[in-house]
# Entry
Amino acid sequence: MKCPRCGSEMKEGMLFCENCGEEIRIVQDFEPEIDGIVTGFDNASNIRPAKVNTEKGKKNEASHMPVLKKRHFGRKKRVFYAAGGAALLIVCVLAAVFVLCFRNSEYQYKRAMRYIQAGDYDVARAYAEQAVRLAPDDSEYLAAYAVCLAQTGRKEETVTVCLRILELDASNEQAYRALIAIYEEDGEYEKINDLLLSCPDEQIVSSYPAYVAKPPEFSYESGIYDKALSLRLSANTSGTIYYTMDGSEPDEDSLTYASPIFLESGAYQIRAVFVNQYGVESQEAEGNYFVDVTVPDAPQVSPAEGSYSRPTLITVSGGENCRIFYTTDGSEPTQDKMEYTGPIPMPVGVTKFRFICYSLAGAAGGETQVTYALNLRASLSIEAARNKLLIELIAADVIQDMSGTVETGTGHYVYNYRYAVTIDGADYYLYREYYEDDAGNSAATGTDYVVDIMNGTCYKAVQAAEASGNASATDGEPESAGRQGKGAVEPDAKLHQAEKSPEDPWSSLTLQEIDSQDKNPEADAGETDSRGTDAGTTPE
# Structure
């Protein structure tokens, strides 16, 4: 059987065309012949009986019988057709309701959702498909249809429907989620990246940061600068930034960004791309910079490098309006290393210094490297001299034992070797006192002790009266390889940045005898803010 409207083949017993929805008339109108028969039966019921002829008797009576039988038969016919008409009406009404429901998109959608909730996606797909056919621009119907397609393994159709949803509703999270799941399963990360970059909803994009490869961001805008720049490049997620500085196109064979790019003097064209963890490459970012600064000369260092047998101070000078930084571990000196602010005591042993000047604009100048070897002619080692000091402090009742235990309060004292120093023509090891509490927190107390390298005589080293407001004059020298001993702790912050001091800070140091007056952890705690901050003065 074919549809009278579109000509499509139809299944037997269908009340409507599945292709165009045309209603199929299964019951035809009454034919004229039947109407005539019914009408005839109706007219027969109006026949009146003849008058009784007494002369004819039973003959006339008998003549009435056929007429009565015809009347009875007509009533049966009318009941039959009435019942048939009612049944036909019911069938037509049901068919009309069915057709109306079939052609109602909301009804189809609700049926689809019912079967989706029941997990029957094949049946749900048929209803959802009909809903979409009736209302092709309804994103809600399309979303239900996409769910059914995805659950029945129809990837390509799912992608097509989801893309159609995004044409209608660019912020439909359900469509993004379905597409990303399919693309990820197929390893199509480029498509995920393009999809998210086209999304106008930042909240959705932020839910999938790892898949997006955005161009690198520069910490400075393009332009002209009168100071050196520490240019930082950043990406939106984990991955690798590749860049060039000569104007060439960056790729995976270019420089890999790992630390700030220093732009000192001249013109720079920085081009960079970002590649995320899935191998997706971003669009290119570019920065153009012109830096015009004065580059300082290399610093001058005294004394000359070589071997020395007595404590020696190292002094460094640079140009005007510049800062000097240095290292002693062989690493490159930069602005985040130790800064030179005054004479540095030469460490015991062999030490390589690297000095560099930076202009106030941040431009790095030349570098100076010197190596010193200090071999003291001493009778005592650094550790033996420290033990002599501990014994002396115990005898003076400053500490209770070799661990530095104090009589009152908690915690203990620690004495760390700092450097060798010359006072009044004699050579000494200098030790700095720290207070360490039971939690392991330590702070300098502002007290220094010295031990004669030859005879082991111990003293307290303090500033002369005219310089009593300063801390130990030689704060800031590097830790030497000779620093050792139990209880060694991380030095205080001043050890990496020296106080301004005269060319010969040792000339202001005086020696005092050690006595029991030095023992007062409670007072020291008040001076150093409960042992948390160096007071900045050396107690007399």
